[in-house]
Amino acid sequence: MSNLIDQLVFVPVLLPLLGAGICLALGRSAAAQRIVSIITLVLVVAASVTLLIRSDMYGPQTYNVGGWDPELGISLVADRFSSLMLVVSTIVTLCVLLYSIGQGIVEFGRDTPLSVYYPTFLVLSAGVSNAFLSADLFNLFVGFEILLAASYVLITLGGTRERVRSGTIYIIVGLISSILFLVGVAAVYAATGTVNFAQLATRLQDLDPEVRIMLQLLLLITFAVKAAVFPLYAWLPDSYPTAPAPVTAVFAGLLTKVGIYAIVRTQTLMFPGDELRTLLLWAAILTMVVGILGAVAQSDIKRVLSFTLVSHIGYMLFGVAIASELSYTGAIFYIAHHITVQTTLFLVAGLVEYRSGTTNLERLGGLARAAPILSVMFFVPAMNLGGIPPFSGFLGKLALVEGAVAEDEGLAMLAVVAAIVTSLLTLYALAKIWARAFWQPAADPEFADEAEHQIALDEEAEFGRTQWGPVGGSLHGHATVSTKTQQASSWQSLQDDQRLPLGMAMPTLFLVVITVLLTAFAGPIMGYTERSAAELLEQTPYIEAVLNR
Amino acid sequence: MSVNIVLVIVVGVMVGCGVTLCLERSLTRILVGFVLIGNGINIMFLIASGDPGTAPLIGASDEPMSDPLPQAMALTAIVITMGVAAFGLALAYRSWQLAGTDDVQDDLEDEFIRRRAETDEVSTTFDDVDEGLPDEYGSDEEEDGVHPRDLTTDAEAIDEDRR
After folding, report:
1. ipTM
2. How many beta carbons lie within 10 A of that of residue B141, not counting itself?
3. What is the four-CA torsion angle of B106, B107, B111, B117, rounded to 10 degrees?
4. Is the pTM for the entire model greater than 0.90?
5. Which B residues 12-71 touch A at CB under 8 Å?
């Protein structure tokens, strides 16, 4: 029995892969695929929660795959930080899966199989878990590759022209960052003769400072591309909004956070010095400010949200740059908060799109009266993201700012100012969505249509493109057909709130409740993140667990 | 550990060629570039493994053997590179099917900003044209039926009347 529990660390990686295989085999039956993927993810959530409890009580949980020595083979480790990330990410993944099942049923009926969607989704989940759990640099690379390969498929789902266009950019950026990571792994191995985190923690300290900084920069740049840190973020706001709503939601919640996780892990364990502090602080400041200025300028809900995503990565980087126990506490709490809130907002954007056929603010309006429940589901996480007290976003920011103020240093103060300004501008961008889409009555259709028609004509004349292909949140990208009919029917029943499909609304509502719970139980959670931060900075529990000492 | 200079030069040339290809517009060329860089990095793993020796089999010989770990990593990397390159080729083909070319398109946002700059317009926030267009060529159907948005304005007009 105890043997079985020891192997629990392996479950979040192995089980989704197994589920994906079964799903592929059941490709003809959509119902069977749905059941298998739900069961798989529920089991993974259960395993992650068990890991969270065990790692908090007994210290980091380890598993050496195939029984090899940790120095040679692959080992998976779940310490407090990893397991928290794992729990939050798997719960979010499960909710998004339920949402996409709801959307699939609404769009294609019960029997039409999305044969490639569920397996890919499970593979993505396996990749994310592998990245969170891996205790060596090369396995981290493999985890990244698993989740990237799955995300390539998901972002070009349906293969419409628009998705191929934006997907191409995303994929090229993914390829380049993978190559950079590979260079980093090779360089680290050449310098130290190992890729195991625990061994690296001791061996890197014996290297020349110049060599060490070069390795650190190599890895940081790689992870910064994945986490969309300024100036390496430009791929994100372009590629995310065209993907299906649940795909965007899960990408927004998880993929960038995996990059941040890797930064936190390598910074605390392998490069604990503060040589690059100034650089990191500037990157954090610029990510926050530039990202949010982008969000303010947008007029499409999904694009605004993509830019707030970039901007709020800056907060987490801010915590990493300060590198005190308090700031890491805040950063870890903020990651957990941001995964849930950002995913929820993207799911709500998907619901808005379903409801009105568009996420363009010029054309939306009157949703507060037409869909009060949807409005509440937007309002709560939006205020949370904007950092209004008493929500968890405020608490996370407070911890980060306190951590920086305690340092009492010029640049840290500048970052505090940037953080507060960004928080206010986030509120402004979200209030703009609230005012335009929910509060004010619908825009004058004639004017909107005319303006749009003019722009369309300009487009055609200028680029010689007559066909832009459908875009939007549909799972297979056949938005012209499905959302047209949906649009007509949803506008006709504007006053009828029952039109919001339960399969899509319930998972979103559940996530909204979770974001509120994060606030309600902020005390215990903050206590947990504090213990995680202490464990990260202390290093020895992790190193001893990995090396089985 | 002495480093084999020939291998280093090979890595440099392969990565250099790859980077040049990656700067092209055509997705196929970018993929060829990606494969070249990938293979260059795999050779870098050979350099990282240190002095060459006999095959890494225990008991096969008394000579010092090569470090097997970088070989395992390079193998994994080769498989991953191949898989991703295959997906990229499929994407290039799909892009060619849809657009008649596999050129990587510009960021939409860039195009809008550039157009505004050319006409010296004041930026009145980005208008999502690509989303609007399906409406445009679907407009025939809408003329027959009721335009969905007319309904809202009607409803609002009624509201106004009541007040």
Report:
1. 0.80
2. 10
3. -120
4. no
5. 22, 27, 30, 34, 37-38, 41, 44-45, 47-50, 67, 69-70
